[in-house]
Design a protein that fits this description.
The chain is of the alpha+beta class. It has 12 helices and 21 strands. It is globular, with a radius of gyration of 22 Å.
């Protein structure tokens, strides 16, 4: 058979509503994949296409793109982990994750960029990962870019928010380039973070997942995996619960017996699953080395309307400061919907809130991302049932100083473009009304008590909590993606990135998942006994 006919609309997904209460489920498969985001969808497709029977388990709900509303409040409730309120233990960093079929790829800004080559070379040199040799890894990049229609934005895909930043960069002589995105014939509605109802963004929900299902994979939504089954040091499957997504009631228990287990739950959830499963932690690295790649949003107010929320969300980025010497700072145009700024407590209250909303059409946004040094720690606290996750992270003094430099750079760009005011992302509600004021205002921001609640921080790109490396004393997974402590258990998501990727990791995770799948297929006699 050359092709398999799929349903006209949506995916074939088994959901909680399809199952009878109290009837426990037992499935058998060659491979069980935990998570349906980028890492899970890619590896599920590759293994299913090679002839393996694959079951994919996703804890989030399934909402077909035809039901997406482009309403950010609706999206936070239906597509995001914890309604977009997941934070570090301190509470000053919002950690956003997709919690739906397709994972974070569904609510991404559609940025699909390669890791800078010097970062790949560092992963080879520092962590012994020869797979990241640029001439080798670029072949995987090329494969994913072709499949996901990755391209540089054309002029019509660069909106007026981006154009204000471009004007400022041109005036200052700073380098910029169009954003690279995984979009096919973008509809330019600007609501990427709320899901793409036109299926123009090539998320996993409209690419690798339907391909995997066409190849025979079975996909279960609303399915929370509690533990990995381990016998004699080898992963043998998983156990969990199917839960009603509306009230979290347990519909039934589920067990999947498998010859290979792949965790693709992301940099927050994967280490938690491994910890709940009692995986030995002889290297003391499990859940450590977490990087959140914090971002702040600097807003420029212009004398004429910008309507920065219209058009493609991600238009361009400033690449002037991407080198190691310049702090590997990533600066990207993009103005989110007011409700997301409200989630960051950005919109104030009362009269100030009304003023802010009245000004919104005059605003342009520049997102400043500063690489953190993998100093975070995510861990499970308490019993398997009834316990909770803890995300330990706070900004270091060095990161704080780089952020202040980023605020100055962003402010300079806006004032050079003609802005009359720059709003700074601080809890003190600071603003600069001129270039002359800018440095003084930014310098007044104090690190205070460990930088807590100094800036309104957001994380879109958690990574690194199950580091890949050739030295088992410093890593959780080996250079092929298999955990050192449990054979037959692989990790395929952003948690295995050895250090901060600098760019958004979606494209790199997809390429790395292809690499892991290729090696499993090449060495399948070592992993499968039937």
């Amino acid at each position: 058979m050359i092709y398999k006919e799929m349903s006209k609309e949506g995916l074939t997904v088994i959901q909680a509503r399809d199952l009878r209460s109290s009837d426990d489920i037992v499935l058998n498969a060659d491979v069980v994949v935990v998570g349906s985001g980028t890492g899970g969808a890619v590896i599920a497709h590759e293994l299913a296409a090679s002839g393996k029977s694959v079951v994919i388990l996703e804890s989030g709900r399934y909402i077909p793109s035809s039901q997406f509303t482009e309403d950010m409040a609706w999206a936070l409730e239906n597509l995001y982990k914890d309604v977009g309120t997941q934070t570090n233990t301190i509470g000053d960093m919002v950690v956003l994750e997709g919690h739906c079929v397709g994972g974070s790829s569904v609510i991404s800004s559609a940025i699909a960029a390669r890791v800078p080559e010097e970062v790949l070379k560092d992963w080879v040199k520092t962590y012994g990962l020869t797979a990241f040799e640029p001439e080798t890894f670029n072949k995987y990049y090329e494969k994913v870019e072709k499949r996901l229609h990755v391209h540089l934005n054309e002029p019509h895909e660069i909106n007026d928010t981006a154009n204000t930043v471009i004007r400022g960069c041109e005036a200052l002589g700073w380098s910029w380039r169009p954003q690279s995105r995984n979009v096919k014939q973008c509809a330019l509605t600007g609501h990427c973070l709320a899901g793409c109802p036109s299926d123009r963004k090539t998320s996993m929900q409209v690419s690798y997942l339907p391909w995997a299902i066409a190849a025979g994979a079975r996909l279960y939504a609303d399915t929370y995996v509690e533990k990995i089954i381990v016998k004699n040091g080898r992963a043998m499957g998983v156990t969990g619960q199917v839960r009603d997504p509306d009230n979290n009631d347990v519909v039934c228990n589920i067990k999947v017996n498998a010859q290979l287990v792949i965790s693709s739950a992301g940099a927050i959830q994967t280490p938690l699953l491994l910890q709940r499963s009692g995986m030995p932690n002889r290297s003391n690295q499990l859940g450590r080395n977490l990087a959140l790649h914090p971002v702040v949003v600097v807003l420029g107010k212009f004398p004429v309307p910008v309507y920065g929320f219209r058009g493609a969300f991600a238009g361009m980025h400033v690449d002037q400061f991407l080198s190691k010497e310049s702090g590997r700072m990533l600066m990207e145009s993009g103005l989110v919907a007011p409700v997301q700024l409200m989630a960051q407590n950005e919109l104030s209250m009362g009269v100030d809130h009304i003023r802010f909303i009245e000004e919104f059409k005059y605003l342009s946004g520049l997102n400043v991302l500063v690489p953190d040094s993998n100093h975070g720690f995510v861990h499970w606290s308490g019993p398997v049932r009834g316990g909770s996750r803890r995300i330990e992270w706070n900004m270091t003094k060095d990161e704080f100083e780089v952020f202040k430099l980023g605020l100055k750079r962003a402010g300079r760009i806006f004032f050079a473009a003609g802005a009359e005011r720059v709003y700074l992302p601080t809890y003190q509600r600071l603003q600069a009304n001129s270039l002359e004021e800018l440095d003084q205002v930014v310098d007044s921001i104090e690190y205070g008590s460990l930088g807590i609640f100094s800036m309104r921080l957001l994380s879109l790109n958690a990574q690194g909590s199950c580091r890949m490396g050739a030295d088992r004393e410093k890593a959780i997974v080996d250079p092929f993606g298999e955990t050192y402590e449990i054979s037959g258990l692989f990790v395929s998501d952003a948690s295995i990135l050895p250090s901060i990727a600098v760019q958004h990791p979606l494209l790199t995770v997809a390429a790395l998942s292809h690499y892991i799948a290729d090696n499993i297929i090449k060495r399948q006699k070592s992993y499968f006994w039937s």
